[in-house]
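User: I'm writing a tutorial on reading structure tokens. Could you give me a worked example: one chain, its sequence, then its tokens, then a sentence or two explaining what the tokens reveal?
Assistant: Sure. Here is the example chain.
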Amino acid sequence: ARKTAPCILFIDEVDAVGTRRADSPSGGDREHAQTLNALLACIDGFTNDPQAPPVVLIAATNRPEMLDDAFVRPGRFDRQVSVGLPGPEARREMLAVHTKAVVLFPNLDLGHIAELASGMSGAQIANVVNEAARAATRRKAAAIEELDFREAFDVIQIGGKMTDRIPSPGERHRTAVHESGHAILAWVGNIPVRRVTILPRGRALGANILGGQDTPPCMADEVRARVAMLLAGYAAEELVLGKPSLGAAQDLVEADRLLTALISSGFSETYPLVAMRESETRAWNALMVERSKTLDAILVHAKSILTSNRPLLDELTETLLRKETILRDELDRLLSSVRRETPSV
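And here are its predicted structure tokens:
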């Protein structure tokens, strides 16, 4: 950089060398500390000589909390900019840029596609366009249509169509029960669902395709509603079929992760307003006991709602078996009789 100055030096994934140094370094920690010290000396060399041609240093990381305090202090990095996920207008503009090289069906609404892409990064949006182009090519179509974008979202979010085996009638029925349970608790918890399907993709025999959200759940009750939705597939299988299957395993893992994050962030009854990290302390063990009890209580709550709405659960199951996919408008109509829960403030 000194030889080519004036210039801009960009370091991507800077946490690989800029992570916080250990208090008692040993072995590899010492080598890391030496590397970081050498990098800090080079950075200081860029800024200490006002007569030298300027070198503008820019670095990027997805883990800023891991960086060493000396590395990010003013004088080395004077400004920190948080780059979040793009909003609706930014996504539409990204789609406009990435679709310049492809042929779109006339009057295709990129604004609607941008809504479907909520929660995606710029790289993921570019990948959506590429996948949509592949989908159109497989159809031997001259232009990309909305159905190609929907296929692209499915490929990215769930996986490609399962071609190595066909689910048995029993598997299809269990999957329909499972996904119907998710859909009902999603409705109760005000979690938007774009469609429900039992068409197998990737490793999943079915899925609830959620409506993207530009912001994650910000209230404790919203997190609990998401946990209830995740546990509802397990609860529906237990209610209708007598016992759940291993197909609910990933739902349980995600429910456990969400609830653990909530309780350890100060939203526990055992230690309210106290944030903790995983450890072997008695306090942490008490939190994990509370987590297990809360998971059990939410599962009972989900099963109670499904029991109260058993005719609807059966109707959704039969509709899925017949149509394989239920879109949002029809889903909302079917679920309109179910009372929704309003999160408390």
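What the tokens reveal: Residues 2 and 309 are 70 Å apart (CA to CA). The chain has a mean pLDDT of 89.
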